[in-house]
Design brief:
By secondary structure, this protein is of the alpha/beta class. It has a single domain, classed as 3-Layer(aba) Sandwich (Rossmann fold), CATH 3.40.50.2300. Helices cover about 40% and strands about 20% of the residues. A four-stranded parallel beta sheet has the order 2-1-3-4. Helix 1 links the parallel strand 1 and strand 2. Helix 1 crosses helix 5. The longest helix has 14 residues.
Length: about 110
């Protein structure tokens, strides 16, 4: 069996979108997941060690990709950041958000 993919889900405050992504993929045996945010008010603020440990990084919006690139240029070298294009329009675990994540994340990570 191959090693689990270490997936870092990133949004603004790690309270809705990345929280939901981590929650729904937590039991997927192919993934080890963590939810972080780019804002100082995030439930868990992204750190250099989060980036370093991740084998896959999924951000919800391009602005989060730019924030990561601005703060963690060296740590991101050689890593791909996947942009999911999911706006901050959802509550945690909202069914439409869950469906969007379930449909988009596995194929993006080569797990479909």
């Amino acid at each position: 069996m191959s090693a689990r993919l270490r997936v870092l889900f990133v949004c603004g405050r790690a309270r809705s979108r990345s929280f939901t992504a981590a929650r729904i993929f937590a039991r997927d045996p192919r993934m080890q997941v963590r939810a972080v945010g780019v804002h100082a008010s995030a439930a868990r603020v992204v750190s250099a060690s989060d980036i370093a440990c991740a084998s896959a990084i999924c951000v919800m919006e391009r602005s989060q990709q730019r924030a990561l690139e601005g703060r963690f240029r060296d740590e991101l070298r050689g890593k791909r950041v996947h942009v999911l294009e999911i706006a901050d329009d959802y509550a945690p675990m909202e069914p439409e958000l869950v469906e969007l994540l379930r449909e988009s994340v596995p194929p993006l990570l080569g797990l479909a």
